[in-house]
């Protein structure tokens, strides 16, 4: 992702260059229209559909005491996702322009390194934010250490405000990544792997949100995002030139990556194979949001396990690639050492030969000085 620098010349209005350069300002103005709509009674109801989480359920205890408001999923969530996708575009533009662009200019990175640096810079704050916030929700909801809450009381069609908002923001983040490919002028060879990543996240998170498997998904995402935060931090350190620190942290990430894959598989198997089948309401009932049927459980479990296996396979291939690069980097250095050694030996031999030649010449000179030249000596003998 190249850094977005505003050129001195003003691009024509509504041209591609104008939209790309000023997309943060344009989208922030659209968001402000919705927020201003909350201030007026005539438009507040429409604006609140886009800004506030919808499908709330209010209950009272014994007709007097109000219970905490719960939320379910529904069609109005598309409006909320649309608004917060635009909000993520604004946040992305602010972080890119005021943080990562300044850092990359100071580091004076090449185009390739700058693209990788900005890609990790986009994902690092997101992963860190959702890992920390998700861990806070897990503790407050009591999913740890009481792990049976992941399946007890299913269907979990009623969520707290924080849990629903957590999933809304996540879905909207991955939705906003698609227009960002245009705003950041992504190259053709970069588009396919990025789109594949975005679709994978969207499919898993959206399916868990609609099938009411939010609790186990939350725990899995927290573990996954924590490790991804470390990876992108290491990647940025390595690109910044701090290879020694990155190398030592890389081994920590290697161990944590393997542990994370096993942890996610363990949580999935415990929930879909052990916990949910033991409930009394095991079966399919779409009206109440109950998707606790064997085909859905097995499909969900298989999808998660296959995804972890695919990530593990990519990880192994990545490690083999690094190992080969180290070996190939070490082999030329050995060749250079042998070349240097042979060069030193040849220089030594040359020096010895020169020394012998010089000593012979010196002896000849001494002989000429004391006894005259050999030709003169020969003439003297003849005479």
Walkthrough of the structure:
Residues 351-383 have low confidence and may be disordered. The chain is mainly alpha-helical and 383 residues long. It contains 11 helices and 6 strands. The protein is flat and about 75 Å long. The strands form 3 sheets. The chain has a two-stranded antiparallel sheet. The protein has a two-stranded antiparallel ribbon with strand order 2-3. It has a two-stranded antiparallel sheet with strand order 5-6. It has helices at 16-21, 23-37, 41-51, 77-107, 111-141, 161-183, 188-210, 214-239, 243-275, 294-371, 374-382; strands spanning 56-57, 60-61, 65-66, 70-71, 283-285, 290-292. 75% of the residues lie in helices and 4% in strands. It starts with 15 loop residues before the first helix and ends with a helix. Helix 2 (23-37) runs antiparallel to helix 4 and helix 9 packs antiparallel against helix 10. One of its GO terms (cellular component) is endoplasmic reticulum membrane. It is found in: Membrane. Residues 330-383 are annotated as: Disordered.
Strand segment count: 6
Q: How much helix is in the residues?
A: over 70%
What kind of sheet is the major sheet? 2 strands, antiparallel
Number of helices in the DSSP assignment:
11
Low-pLDDT stretches: 351-383
Q: Termini separation (Å)? A: 96 Å
**Spatial strand sequence of the major β-sheet:** 1-4
The averaged pLDDT comes out at 84
Shape: flat
Structural class by SSE content:
mainly alpha
SSE ordering? HHHEEEEHHHHHHEEHH
């Amino acid at each position: 992702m190249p850094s977005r620098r505003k050129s001195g010349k003003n691009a024509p209005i509504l041209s591609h260059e104008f939209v790309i350069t000023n997309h943060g300002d344009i989208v922030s103005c659209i968001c402000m229209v919705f927020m201003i709509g909350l201030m007026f009674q005539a438009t507040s109801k429409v604006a609140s559909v886009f800004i506030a989480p919808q499908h709330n359920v209010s209950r009272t205890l014994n007709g007097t005491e109000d219970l905490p408001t719960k939320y379910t999923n529904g069609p109005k969530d598309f409006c909320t996702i649309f608004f917060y996708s635009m909000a993520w575009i604004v946040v992305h533009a602010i972080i890119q322009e005021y943080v990562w662009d300044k850092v990359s200019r100071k580091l004076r990175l090449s185009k390739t390194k700058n693209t990788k640096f900005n890609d990790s810079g986009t994902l690092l704050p997101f992963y860190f934010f959702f890992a920390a916030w998700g861990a806070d929700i897990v503790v407050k909801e009591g999913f740890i250490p009481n792990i049976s809450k992941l399946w007890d009381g299913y269907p979990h069609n009623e969520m707290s405000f924080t849990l629903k908002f957590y999933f809304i923001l996540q879905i909207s983040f991955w939705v906003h990544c698609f227009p960002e490919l245009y705003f950041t002028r992504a190259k053709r060879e970069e588009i396919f792997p990025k789109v594949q990543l975005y679709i994978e996240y969207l499919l898993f998170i959206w399916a868990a949100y609609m099938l009411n498997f939010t609790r186990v998904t939350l725990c899995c995402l927290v573990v996954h995002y924590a490790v991804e935060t470390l990876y992108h931090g290491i990647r940025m350190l390595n690109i910044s030139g701090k290879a020694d620190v990155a190398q030592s942290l890389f081994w920590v990430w290697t161990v944590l990556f393997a542990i994370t894959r096993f942890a996610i598989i363990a949580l999935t198997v415990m929930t879909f194979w052990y916990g949910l089948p033991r409930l009394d309401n095991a079966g399919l009932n779409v009206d109440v949001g109950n998707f606790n049927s064997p085909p859905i459980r097995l499909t969900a479990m298989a999808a998660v396990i296959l995804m972890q296996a695919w990530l593990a396979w990519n990880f192994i291939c990545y490690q083999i690639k690094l190992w080969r690069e180290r070996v190939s980097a070490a082999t030329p250095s050995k060749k250079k050492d042998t070349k240097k050694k042979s060069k030193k030996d040849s220089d030594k031999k040359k020096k010895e030969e020169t020394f012998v030649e010089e000593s012979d010449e010196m002896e000849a000179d001494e002989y000429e000085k004391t006894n005259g030249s050999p030709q003169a000596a020969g003439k003297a003998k003849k005479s």
